[in-house]
Amino acid sequence: MRILDLAYILALGAGLGLGSAHWAVAGRPALGKVEVGAWMAWPRSGGRNIDPYMRAHLARGAHLPLGSGEGLELVAERDDDGQPLDGLCRYTLSGATPTTRGWTLGVTDADGLPFRLPLERTSFTDAEIVRPEDGQMVVSASATPEAGNWLPLPVSGRFQLRLRLYDTPISSQTGETRAANLPRIQRLDCR
User: Fold this and answer.
1) Nearest to residue 183, comparing CAs of 42, 77, 80?
2) Residue 186: pLDDT band by 50, 70, 90 thresholds?
3) Distances (CA, A) of 171 to 37, 45, 55, 176, 183
4) Which pTM does this prediction carry?
5) Which of 88, 106, 119, 136 pairs as cysteine with 123 (C-beta 3.0–4.6 A)?
6) Which has more confidence, 68 or 186?
7) CA-CA distance, 67 to 160, in Å (whole number)?
8) Contact between residue 167 and residue 102 where contact means Cβ atoms under 8 Å apart
């Protein structure tokens, strides 16, 4: 009977240990995360003092973080009202972009991988966007084409918006950044 008890305890311990390890590295870790409005960032993910959970997350996937002096990646999974981003809806991204040498704005699936969209366009750069007179950024995001700066979305399902800022001073001051300094994500309507 003692052997059965010992085998049960070992199996339970191994199952809980492996399950908790998988849970800890399956998604982006909560340690080191900074939230600014709808945007999230992990500013230390490309530095020397990276925590072991982020290191395991990066080793497990195909993610390559920007170095601490290179820039910062911001990820949005929700709009400014807290609703999950969905391909069935139309969105407007508008407002200021932080001081930076350059930026890209792209759409990826929930795991951070690019979509295979019919137009083969999944991102904008700061050089491609047409700005209004006030210099603010205005981008429409939807599954159907729209006039102006249009970012194609998948026909349905969840997605993420990724704003990569290159050579920006906020990479070391993310916690001090306000939501007013980043683009707003507003849901217009859904099909």
Assistant:
1) 80
2) very high
3) 16, 11, 19, 10, 16
4) 0.80
5) 106
6) 186
7) 21
8) yes
Q: What is the pLDDT of residues 65-101, one digit of tens each?
A: 776 667 888 899 999 999 999 999 999 999 888 888 8
Three-point CA angle 86, 25, 74, nearest 5°: 45
Closest CA to 162 of 130, 101, 115: 115
Contact residues for 8 (Cβ-Cβ < 8 A; gap 6+)? none
In the chain, domain spans: 25-190
Which of the listed ranges 44-48, 73-77, 97-101, 113-117 does the model predict with the highest average pLDDT?
Answer: 73-77
**CATH (one of 3.30.470.20, 2.60.120.600, 3.65.10.10, 2.60.120.200) for 25-190:** 2.60.120.600
